[in-house]
């Protein structure tokens, strides 16, 4: 088990360094970051001054090393737009995004797992069809459009919920539904498939044969085994959702890290964008690492692969 | 040549694989409905200049925000006009071109990259496999929407940039699925036989491996097409994808958003069409998987 964890940790760290290099090199996609920063009206001397000021005249690898060394100490440089340290800007906004992510994945799990179990217990029944319909529709639903429809119906027509902002729990209801619905189809399908497979296995037949009550068979014997891959998927989806929060936050004007990313991209605020890409990637890497370790702990067969 | 329609012979031999496949295809409602909707939208996209009642770019400030015909508008503009007086139906029709073009080309680019990586990893194993698996891990760790937005913003939003960026980002599922499929077939007897008679590696990959995993490839192509179309719409909605005045459905939703309070149809119509197209492509992809490779259903 320890060997598995160490191996998996090594991979995570290697991935993290590669991602950090890619997010740093984004800065150089435009060709000359100093010119991009100075704007179209700047003179040659202005650009040259900026190049010196931000150290763009040094070799790219040196700049990367410098950036990485500071980033490891929690210093992501200064935002071009706010003239404030990027780290404190992001720290301020991250709590909203984390809260949204936790609410979203909870909503997804609380709807998808019961639906998946119910669908697997009675395949081809009405509830199975409803679950299938919800998951097929969810995969095709553009989240920005879904969010706008919710605003039209629940904020404008019915007036039940506030259309934007983040001050009370009511502001989080619609964003949670939109973000959660994005993760729901995959979780539901996996729960259903896992339950179907487990319900056909020998130990379930044994449990039934020895006369265990049906509820006990379903929840103690079946769900406990079927849920293992779902745990891992939920962690992966959580990573995707934090990255996807950019769309949801922009629709509902939730001032989280996703919203900051969207604003910063529009403002050419590259240090902020770089740091945000790196941080969202780190969340994904940490979540998948934890999921794999949890999986290996729950199911020893996973440790060998 | 034996006559397969002879009822006696049919009774003895049973249906041919082709007949079985046809039966499965025509018995699969989702696949049929999805394919028909996609075909109709593809024809509309191809024939856009013939079908669109107006020029999708022509502004008419006198006829701004006319309602659609079912909300009391006229047949002159069946789906009304937008905030610049452009005919909404014509923009929707041309928007089908943008969406389908992005979906198809991005899926082809990512399909070529992902298939090459996945097949190489699955066939050669060892170090190649380790490198490809590592690259897949790196790619999955990067948030797609955020990276796409940042790159498009740096390079400037145009149809070409959006297509290329999405194509370079969406290869992960191709690599994962093609790797797994290649692993399944590379130990089969026919591959060993080809190796034994001294066939070259490219020949084995192209004539022995590829034909046996192409079913899975087609399924991923459809699903990634849908993915690319949704992503383009999201990027354009956020203002960092295809730029105005291009008729993109995501952009139309974004432009209608400010008038959503009084004219919700400006947002509802393009979003509904986008939903329909993606739904149809997904139904087709799921159906193709059920019909050709039912063991991969999850």
- Biggest interface, chains and residue tallies: A-B, 50 and 43 residues
**CATH architecture identity of the domain at 96-262 in chain A:** Orthogonal Bundle
Look at the helices and sheets of chain B and give the structural class: mainly alpha
Tally of contiguous helical segments of chain B: 13
For this entry, what is the oligomeric state of its chains? heterodimer
User: What is the CATH domain class of the domain at 96-262 in chain A?
Assistant: Mainly Alpha
Number of E strands of chain A: 0
How many E strands of chain B? 0
Percent strand of chain A equals under 5%
> What is the average of the pLDDT values of chain A?
83
Overall geometry of chain A comes to flat
The CATH homologous superfamily name of the domain at 96-262 in chain A equals MetI-like
Under CATH, the topology of the domain at 96-262 in chain A can be stated as MetI-like fold
Task: Characterise this structure.
The complex is a heterodimer of chains A (305) and B (298). Chain A is built from 12 helices and no strands. Among the domains of chain A are: 31-72, no CATH class; 96-262, MetI-like (MetI-like fold, Orthogonal Bundle), CATH 1.10.3720. Chain A is an all-alpha fold and 305 residues long. Chain A starts with a helix and ends in a 7-residue tail after the last helix. Chain B is mainly alpha-helical and 298 residues long. The longest helix of chain B has 37 residues, at 88-124. The model of chain B has no long low-confidence stretch (mean pLDDT 86). Chain B has helices spanning 7-13, 17-26, 29-46, 48-51, 88-124, 126-141, 144-155, 159-169, 172-185, 189-196, 201-237, 249-257, 265-292.
């Amino acid at each position: 088990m320890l060997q598995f964890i160490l191996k998996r940790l090594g991979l995570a760290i290697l991935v993290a360094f590669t991602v950090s290099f890619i997010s740093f090199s984004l800065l150089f996609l435009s060709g000359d970051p100093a010119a991009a920063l100075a704007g179209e009206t700047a003179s040659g001397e202005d650009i040259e001054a900026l190049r010196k000021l931000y150290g763009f005249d040094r070799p790219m690898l040196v700049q990367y090393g410098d950036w990485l060394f500071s980033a490891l100490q929690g210093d992501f440089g200064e935002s071009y737009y706010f003239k404030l340290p990027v780290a404190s800007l992001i720290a301020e906004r991250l709590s909203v995004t984390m809260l949204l992510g936790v609410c979203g994945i909870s909503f997804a799990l609380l709807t998808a797992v019961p639906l998946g179990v119910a669908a697997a217990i009675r395949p081809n029944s009405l509830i199975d069809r409803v679950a299938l319909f919800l998951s097929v529709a969810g995969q095709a639903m553009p989240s920005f459009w879904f969010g706008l429809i919710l605003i039209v119906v629940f904020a404008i027509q019915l007036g039940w919920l506030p259309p934007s902002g983040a001050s009370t729990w009511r502001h989080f209801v619609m964003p949670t539904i939109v973000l959660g619905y994005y993760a729901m189809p995959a979780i539901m399908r996996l729960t259903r498939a896992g339950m179907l497979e487990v319900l056909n296995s020998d130990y379930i037949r044994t449990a039934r044969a020895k006369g265990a009550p049906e509820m006990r068979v379903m929840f103690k014997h079946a769900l406990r085994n079927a849920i293992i891959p779902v745990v891992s998927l939920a962690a992966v989806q959580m990573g995707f959702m934090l990255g996807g929060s950019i769309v949801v936050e922009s629709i509902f004007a939730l001032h989280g890290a996703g919203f900051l990313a969207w604003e910063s991209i529009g403002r050419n605020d590259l240090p902020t964008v770089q740091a945000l890409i790196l941080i969202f990637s780190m969340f994904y890497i940490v979540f998948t690492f934890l999921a794999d370790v949890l999986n290996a702990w729950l199911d020893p067969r996973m440790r060998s692969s | 040549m034996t006559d397969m329609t002879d009822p006696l012979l049919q009774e003895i031999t049973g249906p041919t694989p082709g007949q079985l496949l046809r039966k499965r295809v025509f018995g699969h409602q989702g696949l049929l409905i999805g394919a028909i909707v996609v075909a109709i939208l593809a024809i509309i996209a191809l024939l856009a200049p013939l079908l669109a009642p107006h020029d999708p770019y022509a502004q008419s400030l006198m006829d701004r925000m006319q309602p659609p015909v079912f909300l009391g508008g006229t047949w002159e503009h069946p789906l009304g006009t937008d905030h610049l007086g452009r005919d909404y139906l014509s923009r929707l029709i041309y928007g089908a071109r943008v969406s389908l073009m992005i979906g198809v080309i991005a899926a082809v680019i990512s399909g070529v990259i992902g298939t090459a990586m996945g097949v190489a990893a699955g066939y050669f194993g060892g170090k190649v496999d380790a490198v490809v698996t590592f690259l897949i891990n790196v790619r999955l760790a990067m948030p797609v929407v955020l990276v796409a937005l940042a790159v498009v913003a740096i390079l400037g939003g145009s149809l070409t940039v959006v297509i290329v960026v999405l194509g370079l980002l969406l290869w992960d599922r191709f690599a994962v699925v093609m790797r797994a499929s290649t692993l399944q077939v590379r130990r089969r007897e026919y591959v060993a036989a080809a190796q034994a008679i001294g066939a070259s590696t490219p020949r084995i990959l192209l004539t022995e491996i590829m034909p046996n995993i192409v079913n899975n490839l087609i399924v991923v192509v459809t699903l990634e097409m849908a993915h690319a179309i949704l992503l383009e719409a999201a990027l354009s909605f956020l203002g960092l994808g295809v730029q105005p005045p291009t008729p993109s459905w995501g952009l139309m939703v974004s432009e209608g958003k400010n008038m959503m309070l009084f004219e919700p149809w400006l947002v509802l119509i393009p979003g509904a069409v986008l939903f329909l197209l993606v739904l149809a492509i997904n139904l087709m992809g799921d159906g193709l998987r059920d019909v050709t490779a039912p063991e991969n259903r999850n």
